[in-house]
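Researcher: We are triaging several targets before committing to wet-lab work. For this one, the compound of interest is S-adenosylmethionine. I'm pasting the protein sequence and the ligand SMILES. What I need is the predicted three-dimensional arrangement of the protein with the ligand bound, expressed as structure tokens, so it can go straight into our comparison scripts without reformatting.
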Amino acid sequence: MEENKVSGIGREGQVRRSADVVSIARAQESQKEGPLICDPYAHLFVSPEGEEMLRSALGRWPFFAEYLVVRDKFFDEHLRVLCEKEDVKQMVSLGAGNDMRAARLDFLKGRKVFEVDLPDQITAKKAILKSELGKLPEEVTYVGTSVTEPGFMLVLQKAGFVPEERSVFIVEGLIYYLSSEGVDCFFDELSHLPSLRNLFLVDHISIDFSQKALDPEKRGKPPYPENVLSYLSNRGFSIRESALLGNLTGKYCGKNYQEKWWVVAAIR
Ligand SMILES: C[S@@+](CC[C@H](N)C(=O)[O-])C[C@H]1O[C@@H](n2cnc3c(N)ncnc32)[C@H](O)[C@@H]1O
């Protein structure tokens, strides 16, 4: 797995740079005619380290960028339906990385948005946005903390999140970087929220694929919840829809892939 590493950045940096990899896939998709998703801000986060990591991933997994794009599409569609048809007041992006939904999705206007990520990532993102755009998106509250820290929901509440208001939680590209204890701690915190039919958009990869795709310095420590659907069901979440990204690429790009990477929309 050594060849998957980008020289000169340790585990923290690698995990943070994984956010740039996602941005590069978004930026490339946004330049296409009739893109599946459009993120006009994604190019701001293109870094040489991210480009090297994406190149390395694509060398092994030619579907990698397509997976990232159809994952976004699945999440955006669920988010849109919930915002347009149901009374959602808040969106929380956990492990937000370079997520720019607050600025790029009109239907989020007027709703509170919280972006949670490790303090270094939040600082780096704010610095890029300030220098490139001159200001930060107005609706966003940035929260620099670890989601595996017991009590992170209290940190979120101190930042203005109201647990009694209906919310959407985006958990995109996050849980396979956490230890299994971290994942448990994270979902325990979410399970303590009042049951308001909040929506949780989560993606997850199989242990097998994680071992092949992520180098040991980057991935969390197995055992992961191998079956994310029963993991969520056991914690009181009801599955609204789940799909394999390989099937979604079949639907949107005409190419089916086998690697097990799920996207899930769950309600609780
Ligand atoms: C692959 S990126 C995904 C970013 C974003 N969700 C997206 O899809 O564009 C993973 C993100 O998770 C963040 N992350 C990793 N461990 C975390 C933790 N314990 N608490 C909060 N964020 C974390 C990283 O800093 C990084 O920004």
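Researcher: Any quick observations?
Model: The longest helix spans residues 64-85.
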